[in-house]
Amino acid sequence: MSGAPPEPPPYSLAVLGHDGTPLAAEARELLERAALVVGGARHLAALPVPDGARTVVMGDVRAALDEIDAAAGAGDGRRIVVVASGDPGFFGIVRALRERGHRPRVLPALSSVARAFARAGLPWDDALVVSAHGRELRRAVNACRAHPKVAVLTAPGAGPAELARALFPQTPRTFVVCEDLGGPRERVVTVRPAEASTRPWHDPNVVLVLDPRRAVPGERGWIAGPRPGPGGWALPDAAFGPGPVGTTAEVRALALARLGPRIGDLVWDVGAGAGEVGIECARFGAAVVAVERDEAACERVRRNVRAHRVKVAVSRGTAPAVLDHLPDPDAVFVGGGGPEVVRACASRALRSVVVVTAGPDRVRAAVDALRGEALTAHAVRIQADPALPAGPAGRDPEGAAAAFVVWGERDGADPSGRWAPVPQPEAAAVTVAALPDPDPDSVPWDDR
Ligand SMILES: C[S@@+](CC[C@H](N)C(=O)[O-])C[C@H]1O[C@@H](n2cnc3c(N)ncnc32)[C@H](O)[C@@H]1O
């Protein structure tokens, strides 16, 4: 039989995870036959890279990806191997390769996060995993303020010491610092943030940031990561104990929508009253500082925080002076204070400020204060009266007063877009194995 020999595939690309243990047979074979090997210096040094292979040390990720593109584009069936730490599909190189159109074969090793929790002897299906690797440290810090069990992927300059300095002394936590897991300098130490802030640490490392009172052994759930969002919000006023709340449920609903609290955010609740707005923000996963000048009110906030089983730091003092000591917030709720407080909050807020006031004469001053700090301002008047007869504990329909909600947003503050439509890249076609047609008798319901 004659005919042209089959075309070699244009290239092959495999990504091997490395965790310090010897490569599995399949991964070793791929490496032996590689023409181009790309990886971090420590991986290339630790693995049997074949003599004939060209190596590219992955320092500058973009440059390394360009090399991979060029080798793939040569169209000569080149075998390319990328070596990366842990599970390369988890905060790793697989995403960038897919973004460039590659369809790599991935052979993962154990993720550094799985290994770190194993070293600590802790379950981690309830842990929040955040990355400060090439990203803002503040989001990781806020996640650690709000959650009892967080694993932080670090980077030089955003490591255990920097994390500890940001958390100390307001946020008591235990750090389990896991250095060079699986490598020659592996070390796992448990320290308090004060100590973590002054010690030298080796890269790479993962830090488990644990609230010892709440993280061990952790809650048993049905979903990995932090608990899903709250089952409801704009809670009844009575959820914040006896006595009136400053911001009633319906007004709070709009305030929460405009604050947009979420994991990684820091929210200030200024003039916290019973803590109702701050507590609701914490239920969404945000870190919160409640600012109150009155000690009895601070005590009420603490009581409510405990009752709702969330984390809210309480800062007793008078705004605006007390705000100087706080880290910059993503969003601020101002339930009390004049225009100078609104202005001080607006000057620090990264995303939005929401002001609730009962006095119509205060709306203009609040709007001016927000605009003075370059926020786009909006204001509405809300009157929510019970439409059914009140029971003994109900709200008096005659007494319901209108509230004014004034809010300001910083333009372009949130690239992920909270309500602006996000332009979607054209979806790349993904091939999945066809599923067999279901047997109609065995389908318990259909969702057409
Ligand atoms: C880009 S992320 C890659 C994570 C990796 N895909 C994984 O599953 O472990 C890089 C970060 O992972 C963590 N890391 C990776 N290898 C590690 C190791 N051997 N020991 C401790 N931390 C490690 C460090 O926080 C490092 O800065």
UniProtKB/TrEMBL annotation:
NCBIfam families (alphabetical): CbiE
Superkingdom field: Bacteria
BP GO annotations: cobalamin biosynthetic process; methylation
The Tetrapyrrole methylase domain, residue ranges: 23-192
Catalytic class of the enzyme: transferase
Keyword annotations from UniProtKB, A to Z: Cobalamin biosynthesis, Methyltransferase, S-adenosyl-L-methionine, Transferase
Pfam name, any one: TP_methylase
Enzyme Commission number, as recorded: 2.1.1.132
Entry keyword annotation includes Transport: no
InterPro entries for this protein: 4pyrrol_Mease (IPR000878), 4pyrrol_Methylase_sf (IPR035996), 4pyrrole_Mease_sub1 (IPR014777), 4pyrrole_Mease_sub2 (IPR014776), CbiE (IPR012818), Cbl_synth_CobL (IPR006365), Cobalamin_biosynth_MTase (IPR050714), SAM-dependent_MTases_sf (IPR029063)
Pathway(s) annotated for this protein in UniProt: Cofactor biosynthesis; adenosylcobalamin biosynthesis
Gene3D superfamilies the record matches: Cobalt-precorrin-4 Transmethylase, Domain 1, Methyltransferase, Cobalt-precorrin-4 Transmethylase, Domain 2, Vaccinia Virus protein VP39
PANTHER family, alphabetized: COBALT-PRECORRIN-6B C(15)-METHYLTRANSFERASE (DECARBOXYLATING), COBALT-PRECORRIN-7 C(5)-METHYLTRANSFERASE
UniProt name for this protein: Precorrin-6Y C5,15-methyltransferase (Decarboxylating)
Molecular function (Gene Ontology), one example: precorrin-6Y C5,15-methyltransferase (decarboxylating) activity
